[in-house]
Design a protein that fits this description.
Strand content: over 45%
Protein name: Fimbria/pilus periplasmic chaperone
CATH architecture of the largest domain: Sandwich
CATH superfamily of the largest domain: Immunoglobulins
Pfam families: PapD_N
Number of strands: 18
Organism: Acerihabitans arboris
Radius of gyration: 21 Å
InterPro entries: Ig-like_fold, PapD-like_sf, Periplasmic_pilus_chap, Pili_assmbl_chaperone_N
Oligomer: single chain
Distance between the termini: 51 Å
CATH class of the largest domain: Mainly Beta
Number of domains: 2
Shape: globular
Keywords: Signal
Number of helices: 1
């Protein structure tokens, strides 16, 4: 890249950083509920989307099986749950129902986790005259879906949480394990004097564990405190013994 082009690119990034909230507002998608559940004999669940922006938007809807381990998150293609429609166009101000349809019976005795991904696809109106010197943004919305069989439900059990500090390639990470039969949705997390987040921290799936890199040094003897939103409780714990 020539120096002159680098200068123009840097300027474009600066202007974009100033205009980004307004640019995103053009394609603002409202989605609800944010935590859909399918339980018992229920064959389908509802997901609503509304275009709050000023221009039309195209959305592709895909559903993946969701797993966690200490190594990270894994998403797998599956056909147990499908979205109808899988693709939709929303004009400005329009809303539409997406049905999440169960095609096979849920596995008995355990919570099944999925991720619904809604990807915005550029529309013809998003095209620019000079694609080589422009930046195209595509928003992705990710919604969890939990499925239960028979008499099971989100209230069938409770998360059983523990944590420890681990070193991964020289990086200190907070590892939280959940030995319970249902997931934990954690928010407002604090580790000692270190405020991890004021909002959503993340999920730990049933019988799984997950790691978060830490940006500041933390004493292993610190108290971890977080809200478990799906249980409406507060979890406080010292690190598990090694």
């Amino acid at each position: 890249m020539k120096i002159a082009n680098r200068g123009r690119f840097a300027l474009a990034l600066l202007l974009l950083s100033l205009w980004l909230p307004a640019a995103w507002a053009g394609h603002a998608v409202l989605i609800w509920p944010v935590d859909p559940v399918m339980a018992g004999a229920q064959k389908a669940a509802e997901l609503w989307v509304e275009n709050k922006g000023a221009t039309a938007t195209l959305l592709q809807v895909r559903i993946f099986a969701w797993q966690q381990s200490g190594e990270g998150e894994r998403f797998h293609t599956q056909q147990d749950i499908i979205a109808s429609p899988p693709m939709l166009r929303l004009d400005a101000g329009q809303k539409q129902l997406i049905r999440l349809i169960r095609q096979t019976p849920a596995a008995a005795g355990r919570e099944q986790a999925y991720r619904i991904l809604l990807d915005e696809i550029p529309t013809p109106g998003d095209r620019v005259d000079d694609p080589a010197n422009s930046l195209t943004f595509q928003m992705r919305y990710s919604i969890p879906l939990f499925v239960y069989a028979g008499q099971a439900s989100p209230d069938s059990g409770a998360p059983l949480l523990s944590w420890r500090l681990v070193q991964v390639k020289g990086q200190t990470c907070l590892e939280i394990a959940n030995r319970g039969p249902v997931h934990a949705r954690l928010s407002r997390a604090r580790l000692g004097t270190y405020q991890l987040t004021d909002g959503l921290f993340g999920y730990v799936l049933a019988n799984s564990s997950y790691r978060w890199p830490l940006k500041a040094p933390v004493d292993a003897g610190s108290l971890l405190e977080a809200r478990v939103d799906n249980r409406k409780t507060v979890w406080r714990s010292r690190a598990a013994a090694r």
